[in-house]
Amino acid sequence: MWKLGVLLVLATCRLSWANPSCDLSSVLPCMMPAIAYMLGPEGQELATLKDGGEINEQQLLGICRLGQSTLGCMKDHIDRCVPRSIPDIHDFMAGTANVMTVCDKPGMYSNAKVLMKCNQKLNATSTKFRRCTEDLSSGIQGMTGGSQATATFSTDPNKALDMWKSGNMLRDLCCKVQNYKNCMGTEVTDKCGADAAAVDTSVFHAMFNTYSCQGRVADCSSVA
Question: Most exposed residue of 119, 149, 182, 216, measured as fewest CB within 10 angstroms of its CB?
Fold first, then answer.
């Protein structure tokens, strides 16, 4: 997903060149709180969790709120500066901002813990999970042309803009996620139990709804 974010930023860069009132310096205030957080004591404390610690509710909510405000700020910039003739950019940004409303929902932390523990277990014990996850990662990398293409886009943002203009980006993303869900089958239930499977399914449906995937996956036969 972060690769799609990179393409989004590069495409916005290209559009901003043609619109002086949308200079990218106006985006910097969106990013500064996140940068300050990651360089500050809270961010440094989170970095230690890679060694096996468990994120607490206050930490998770803090990250969630930070992401919510950053995406909201970015969405305002895109709404103002990106033409409506490129709907995938607007739909992707609106959908991603909508996903972050999870911060406001009761049970967010308990559900996140269930998923994190299940993912740890699946990564350690399930070859199917690792295969399906790798297929999803490779599929998204294929959508963006891979790491070499991302480097090319950074020197020629017109190419990133053309990808968003194609109108296929969200369709391809929805199809990749649908393929992952089909690949996993009952693996979450089998390895983590019914409670984890219910949370996993709710996350899947929330993503499908927020990106209007149901109307896009009918065309998955044309997606490699």
Answer: 182
In this structure, what is the dihedral angle of CA atoms 76, 96, 34, 44, given to the nearest 10 degrees? 180
Average confidence (pLDDT) over 109-138: 94
In contact, 71 and 96? CB cutoff 8 Å: yes
105 contacts 64 by C-beta, under 8 angstroms: no
Give the whole-angstrom CA distance, residue 94 versus residue 76: 10
Please give the pLDDT value at position 148: 46
| 105 DSSP assignment | S
pTM of the predicted protein model: 0.79
Of 9, 19, 18, 31, residue with least CA distance to 160 = 9
Amino acid at 51: D
Q: Decide if 200 contacts 164 (C-beta within 8 A).
A: no
Predicted local confidence at residue 119, as pLDDT: 93
Query: Tokens 């996903």 sit at which residue?
Result: 99
The string of DSSP letters for 17-39 reads: HT-GGG-GGGGHHHHHHHHHHHH
Encoded tokens for 166: 């194609």
Closest CA to 108 of 140, 68, 77: 68
Burial 78-103 (b: 16+ CB within 10 A, else e): beebbeeebebbbbbbbbbbbbbebb
Q: What letter would DSSP give residue 48?
A: G
Phi, psi of 168, deg, nearest 5: -105, -5
Amino acid at 64: C
